[in-house]
Design goal:
This protein folds into two domains: 205 residues, no CATH class; 97 residues, Pdz3 Domain (Roll), CATH 2.30.42.10. The protein has ten helices and twelve strands. By secondary structure, the protein is of the alpha+beta class. The two termini are 31 Å apart.
């Protein structure tokens, strides 16, 4: 039950922030807002303030801001309608939804770095047979202080220093054992692993596994801000790289996409790990939502921006029939995608149980 509450809370926050981005910019530009709605299904709350109706529905898995004259069928030419605005103003109304999700992601990452996050130290918890660390005489309980003179305080630092090394190369490790520091020359072997975009690559390996020693890492206010921005840019780069591999067929759609059901299971795992894991999940989801919404597909914000670009070139809006066709294509795409990712999540999370049921 707690997982469900956290899951719905996360989605509600992300959607609310996204729609608020559209809402606040439209309001600032003088566009009349007819409805601001969160969720779908039975309406559990509704209130009208001035010209805007605010509503909350039972299932918070979506939301929308209804602007006056935001489709050609309803457009009457009044100055406070969406299509009465110049393309540049309409761009900002559309773009600020994803932009606020992006800013929210940065904020969550800043909170993680500022409040403190758990990470593993470089203490060795195990040795892999046949790899360089074992051959060099390293032992369980040793702590790796540096690689080729570069300080390695945390396990992620150690991985970063070693992964780029090539087969049969050597690294000079500074190691702490029983309070005494010594040097060890360790041979690198390569192993094929999945990288952060799901692509198989060869990584340099020492042949050590981490000890269960965790420390809390905190950073200052401004340093956390910089790290939050850097983390967001890194995630953005990885996401677009993954999208490029999806389009080229080098990355499996089935393995790389998930929907609400899959996010629910991820939320369950994050909730068990604590607040920091939940914040990290919210940051990743918020940035992913921004990037997904900016893809140039009909109905998505990116699709509307693309049509604005076409309008700017043509010096006129699309006709009503063309708009209706594009909307139908967009809605069909969203429905297909929703069915696909839901089926994929069911197979991924319940595949063994389903197979067992039918094989009885």
């Amino acid at each position: 039950m707690l997982t469900l509450v956290i899951f719905l809370g996360i989605l509600s926050i992300l959607i609310l922030v996204h729609e608020f981005g559209h809402f606040i910019v439209a309001k600032k530009l003088g566009v009349r807002i007819e409805q601001f709605s969160l969720g779908f299904g039975p309406v559990i709350f509704k209130k009208k303030k001035k010209e805007t109706e605010y509503s909350l529905s039972a299932i918070p898995l979506g939301g929308f801001v209804k602007l006056a004259g935001d489709n050609l069928e309803e457009f009457t030419g009044k100055p406070d309608e969406y299509f009465s605005q110049a393309p540049g103003k309409r761009f900002w109304i559309i773009f600020c939804g994803p932009l606020l999700n992006y800013i929210l992601g940065i904020l969550f990452f800043w909170m993680i770095f500022f409040v403190g996050y758990p990470t593993l130290t470089t203490k060795i918890g195990g040795l892999v047979d046949g790899f360089g660390a074992q051959e060099a005489g390293l032992k369980v309980g040793d702590k790796i202080l540096a690689v080729d003179g570069k300080k390695t305080e945390y396990w992620e630092d150690l991985q970063s220093s070693i992964y780029s090394q090539k087969e049969q190369s050597y690294v000079q490790l500074s190691v702490l054992r029983d309070g005494k520091e010594f040097s060890a020359k360790v041979r690198i072997k390569e192993k094929q692993l999945d990288d952060s975009t799901g692509t198989k690559r060869n990584f340099g390996i020492l042949g050590v596994t981490p000890f269960d020693e965790i420390v809390i890492v905190k950073h200052g206010f401004w340093e956390s801000s910089g790290l939050g921005v850097s983390k967001t840019l890194e995630l953005t780069k990885l996401t677009y790289m993954a999208l490029g591999r999806l389009v080229s067929g080098r990355l499996s759609v089935r393995e790389s996409m998930t929907g609400p059901l899959g996010i629910f299971f991820i939320t369950s795992k994050a909730a068990r790990m604590g607040v920091i894991a939940v914040l990290n999940l919210m940051a990743v989801l918020s940035i992913s939502l921004a990037i997904f919404n900016l893809l140039p597909f009909p109905v998505l914000d990116g699709g509307h921006i693309f049509l604005l670009f076409i309008e700017k070139i043509r010096k006129k809006t699309l006709n009503l029939k063309t708009e209706q066709i594009i909307n139908k294509i967009g809605i069909s795409f969203i429905i297909f995608l929703a069915v696909f990712v839901t089926y994929n999540d069911i197979v991924r999370n319940f595949g063994p149980q389903i197979a067992k049921f039918f094989l009885k």
